[in-house]
Amino acid sequence: MKERAGGSGFPAGRGEILIEGVRHRGRTVDVYIDGEGRIAAIGREAGRRSGREAETRIDGRGQVLIHSLVNTHTHAAMTLMRGYADDMPLQEWLTTKIWPLEAHLTGEDIYWGTKLACLEMIRTGTLAFNDMYFFMEEAARAVGEMGLRATLAYGFIDLGDEGRREKEIRATERLVSVVKGMANPRIRPAVGPHAVYTVSPEGLRWCADFSREEGISIHTHLAETEQEVRDCVKMHGKRPVAHLDTCGCLTERTVAAHCCWLDRPECTLLAARGTSASHNPTSNMKLAVNRAMPYPWMKEAGVNVTLGTDGCASNNSLDMFGAMKDAALLQKFAWNNQTVLPAPEVLHMATEAGARALGIHAGRIEVGAPADLVLISLAKPQMTPLFSEESNLVYSAAGSAVDTVICDGRILMLHGVVPGEEEILSRASKAAAALVGRSVI
Amino acid sequence: MKERAGGSGFPAGRGEILIEGVRHRGRTVDVYIDGEGRIAAIGREAGRRSGREAETRIDGRGQVLIHSLVNTHTHAAMTLMRGYADDMPLQEWLTTKIWPLEAHLTGEDIYWGTKLACLEMIRTGTLAFNDMYFFMEEAARAVGEMGLRATLAYGFIDLGDEGRREKEIRATERLVSVVKGMANPRIRPAVGPHAVYTVSPEGLRWCADFSREEGISIHTHLAETEQEVRDCVKMHGKRPVAHLDTCGCLTERTVAAHCCWLDRPECTLLAARGTSASHNPTSNMKLAVNRAMPYPWMKEAGVNVTLGTDGCASNNSLDMFGAMKDAALLQKFAWNNQTVLPAPEVLHMATEAGARALGIHAGRIEVGAPADLVLISLAKPQMTPLFSEESNLVYSAAGSAVDTVICDGRILMLHGVVPGEEEILSRASKAAAALVGRSVI
Questions:
Q1: Which of A21, A115, A229, B361 makes a 20 to 30 Å CA pair with A220?
Q2: Using CB atoms, which residue from A317, A333, A424 is nearest to B382?
Q3: Residue B398 and residue A396: Cβ atoms within 8 Å?
Q4: A210 in B contact zone (CB under 8 Å)
Q5: Residue B114 CA: distances (Å) to CA of B150, B175, B225, B432
Q6: Which tens digits make up the pLDDT trace of A230-265?
Q7: Whether residue A386 sits in one domain with residue A293
Q8: For residue A5, is pLDDT > 70?
Q9: Least CB–CB distance from B398: residue in A328, A400, A424
Q10: Tens digits of per-residue pLDDT, A50-70?
Q11: Which residues lie below 8 Å from residue A93, measured CB to CB, with a gap of 6+?
């Protein structure tokens, strides 16, 4: 057996793992993970077929196995602002609550806020996420330690000011250089032009060029509110999708969050450019954006639609199971149709489509794929009875049903235990309290 | 110390309980519960002040204490149909999936389905619920054993047929007699006229008269869909609220579920009659009823607005934390206003307003009140940081944060352990599979 860290019974690193007797797509299978973190065999007696003894064995009986969930839009360190201000008019909330806190954020805050976010994601089965915020070098350090996959973008905001743009360019270049220097295959840099209303056309063009040169993703907000669309037409003579396209930002490497206020031609253009959309139903309802992402049009056009939670200031949870249920509910309600966005499509959004958007891997459980796996306990009332894995996962499971997670072949949570949890909760709490102390005069 | 059942460390019945060092409304308090299941003292050192030794001590440090949640609309035994059929057009779903199963339900099914529902509710902090279904004597037996509070109604459906009406009257009378005969103060009977489109005016009038004579509640569905309103106006020349009123069904003892398609005068009439509304946001979105309950009008009129999950066929969860979040999200989205239904109002709906609707007690934690208490663990990422108990409870907690529950002075779950859970999961699973086996030819 593998050397174990401390007395916790927790495997210290990567090594062969055999998951025995787990339920997957209605069958009972074994899954063998090799020492490189890849799935080497799936099926009855995959362990025996491999002809060797696994260093770690996980009893998968009474569990269902799914691919890890992929959160394609969040601001991870905003966990520090969870519950700090809710139920307020949008502008007042931003100007009197959120922005004053953000003005006082430090790298240390980002580190502990991102660790708290990673802890919450691990506990709820999300092992890859698309992040945009500040002090992202500290986010990279946190993600590196926590063992998840992340695509990290600095939130580029020039407000049309050339001096500010130069600073944002330097900050973006620095982040990309730092992350590339880490040479951690789980962590990738991205360019993060915040939105068409906060970044000038020049800034957007620089982001597009730089992302192409570096071969990295673009992460942006798009068509979240009606105001954004109106202002964009007024300022640039075009709706936001066309404007982004003109500036070169609509690429196959782009993830556009929200996409609430799109018309049909905009859906078609996103599809034509191969740009992925991140649906954020919980945030959109909480912030009352007054329109649901037009999923039926997106689906018809062939857009790669993925799922995100948004940050904790506007959700207030990073549990993708909650986002999955909210997506299914909101789409049905908004389109007045019980059949829109059925459970299997929601799961596809939250796994394969998300993985494709971030270009990380197939997002499927198959031989040769990286082992990004989530085991969900069936011995729970909300998983009983089990007529449909998909329905229970989307409509009743909730993230708390997650028992064990494996990312890139490393066990990050084993039977509900995440090493170091207590310190993260304590340090993040203190960082949040101190942040408010510094910000409120 | 109290005698404990088996080797589980679980208190066998009622007895003095001292909860020490728990957080409640921003303070740290002790709570002393007397042998009659009532709160005898709250405050610093409530235990010492009582001058006696509690039989059971619960360490409340790192926990927040709230009143138990009250689910004012469900069909508990429909847990057996969880995930059996989803994402289908409403009529096809009812006629090809739900009704065929319901035609084959047995008393034994209701017993195990209700036990499963009670287990899920205990785990997620709901200790009182308003139930309407069939074979309710078996539901009463299940609730009696599980230790929750419930108001149980037989779903009265005469479809305008006199013979059928007579049968429904007998079934209703039988249930009321059986439940009264149990003499269990936690379990109350109610009259359950299903809806204006399934019960004749004669049936509604009988329900109104009988509920008045017996001094028991009325539980009905109201204005769930636009079709219901249209058909009611066509058949009875009145909108549903006025029609119910004409038939005597709008009383202070009435809980009307859904209330999506109300106009302003209907809200005013509900308020004038003292009738409670049960908001069911999750079900309303999943079944695409195309309108959210007009909460701002209800609030303005002074209606007692409560919260429900609906049954597991249309939700598919009984977690009231999910319903709380969905209510806050849906109302904001539907009214295009971030300030509608803030977290403290949601908590009020789910506790005090619910308790008032069911006439059970104050629904508040105060000296002299029955001890219906829920302890929620703060050592969770979703409860960190803790700027606002209300915000975290509504927007991020989820039912899985519930650690310990006490109903009427009896501990039903202690640190996540509910006695007998394994048998309930196993028996309910088997009952669900057998039900489908009998129904599908």
A1: A115
A2: A317
A3: no
A4: no
A5: 11, 16, 27, 12
A6: 999 999 999 999 999 999 999 999 999 999 999 999
A7: no
A8: no
A9: A400
A10: 556 788 999 999 999 999 999
A11: A85, B338
The total domain count for chain A is 2
Q: Summarize pLDDT for B360-414 with one digit per residue, the tens.
A: 887 899 999 999 999 999 999 999 999 999 999 999 999 999 999 999 999 999 9
Residue in A with minimal Cα distance to B292: A333
CA-to-CA separations, B209 to A71, B205, B335, in angstroms, rounded:
55, 6, 38
User: Do A232 and A353 share a domain, yes or no?
Assistant: yes
Residue type, B292: A
Same domain, yes or no: A294 and A272? yes
CA distance A245 to A254: 11
Place of tokens 């039989």: B55
Answer yes or no: do A378 and A335 share one domain. no
Interface check A323 vs B, CB under 8 A: no
Interface test mutation site (partner B, options A63, A64, A86, max chain B beta carbons within 10 A): A86
- The DSSP 8-state label assigned to residue B51 in this structure reads T
CB contact under 8 A, B422 and A290: no
From chain A, pick out residues whose CB is under 8 angstroms from the CB of B433.
385
The structure tokens listed for A99 are 């922005």
Same structural domain for residues A19 and A63? yes
- Which of A358, A379, A405 marks a domain boundary? A358
Q: Does A112 touch chain B (CB under 8 A)?
A: no
Cβ pair B180, B223 in contact under 8 A: no
CATH number (domain holding residue B179) = 3.20.20.140
The answer to whether residue B441 is domain-embedded is no
In terms of residue numbers, what domain contains A63?
4-67+367-421
Q: B332: which chain A residues are within 8 Å (Cβ-Cβ)?
A: 285-288
CATH at A59: 2.30.40.10
Measured between CB atoms, does B386 come within 8 Å of chain A?
A: yes
Q: Could you give phi then psi for residue A38, rounded to 5 degrees? A: -110, 155
Q: Is residue A432 part of a domain?
A: no
Q: What count of CB pairs under 8 Å joins A to B? A: 212
Task: Name residues 268-287 of chain B within 8 A of A (Cβ).
Answer: 282, 284-287
CB-based contact, B220 to chain A, within 8 Å: no
Q: Looking at the complex, report in whole angstroms how far the Cα of residue A112 sits from the nearest Cα belonging to chain B.
A: 11
The residue assigned the tokens 């339920």 is: A23
Q: Where are the alpha helices (DSSP H) in A76-106?
A: 90-93, 99-103
* pLDDT of the residue at A53: 74
Statement to judge: residues A274 and A318 lie in one domain:
yes
List pLDDT tens digits, range B267-289. 999 999 999 999 999 999 999 99
Whole-number Å distance between alpha carbons of B425 and B437: 18
Specify the pLDDT at position B50. Answer: 57
* Residues ≥6 apart with Cβ < 8 Å to A14: A35, A36, A37, A408, A409, A410
Instruction: Convert A426-439 to b/e letters by CB count within 10 Å (16 or more is b).
Output: ebbbebbeebbeeb
Counting every residue written for chain A, the total comes to: 441
Residues A110 and A30 in one domain: no
Closest partner residue to B395 (CB to CB) among A86, A289, A391 is: A86
B278 within a domain of the structure (yes/no): yes
Q: Is residue B409 part of a domain?
A: no
| Cis before B385 (ω within 30) | yes
Q: Which of B299, B378, B395, B423 to mutate to test the interface with A (most CBs of A within 10 A)?
A: B395
Is A376 strand, coil or helix? strand
Residue to substitute from A64, A326, A341, A396, interface B, most B β-carbons within 10 A:
A396
Instruction: Note whether A51 and A60 are within 8 A (CB).
Output: no
Q: Which of residues 4-43 of A touch B (CB under 8 A)?
A: none
What is the spatial distance between Cα A78 and Cα A1, in angstroms, rounded to a whole number? 39
Are A407 and A277 found together in one domain? no
